[in-house]
What we know:
Helices cover 68% and strands 4% of the residues. The protein is mainly alpha-helical. The longest helix is centred in the N-terminal third of the chain and has 34 residues, at 2-35. Residues 124-146 are annotated as: Disordered.
Amino acid sequence: xxxxxxxxxxxxxxxxxxNIASGMDxxxxxxxxxxxxxxxxxxxxxxxxxxxxLDYTSMERTLxxxxxxxxxxxxxLRDSDVSVEECKALLEAAxxxxxxxNYDKDLQSHSKVLxxxxxxxxxxxxxxxxxxxxxxxxxxxADQSLxxxxxxxxxxxxxxxxxxxxxxxxxxxxxxxxxxxxxKRGIDELLSKRKRFRCPLPGCNNKSFIxxxxxxxxxHFKKLLEKQRRANKRKQADSMYVD
Length: 243
């Protein structure tokens, strides 16, 4: 009877783990949508999102510690005959022992928290750059024209769409062998399903099969793509006023 208490606890852990992971991914997706301009930027909401993410990391830590406590108690009860109440007491004591060295600062170094803050920093830098361009006004037309020419050149040479997904790239990686770009999520998914394929760009002389070791994040190209999206939005806004 007592071991059934432990078994029920174990069965509930898998669903909780999945819910926590989904919650973290949802928060990171919101920040990704902000970076792509699909949602509006709000500092207070971002602070609330970070608090939610920290709550999720705390729940994840508690879950891991409880899982370890369950395994420990189950091992103790393997050849023992104890009551349900004794089993619950053992489980609670083991869990409390796991939690005694918990510190909030440990949550700050969680990989999801670091990823969130990196995305947030990129978002704020992009916003500051856009505000500086708006404040500069007409005097920056020459520089803006040069920037757009650079983007046109980039678009002509490598394209802004992933050759695999045919979607606009937002998180590009560069093939270090041939220099062509792909969307990270698309190429990662393809690599997980297929073992051997080459760069699909027409005229590419790279005969090597694509592997993870040949792919590197390209922050410079990513900024060019972001600038292109902002330029397109300004053109759309200007056309609305003209009409």
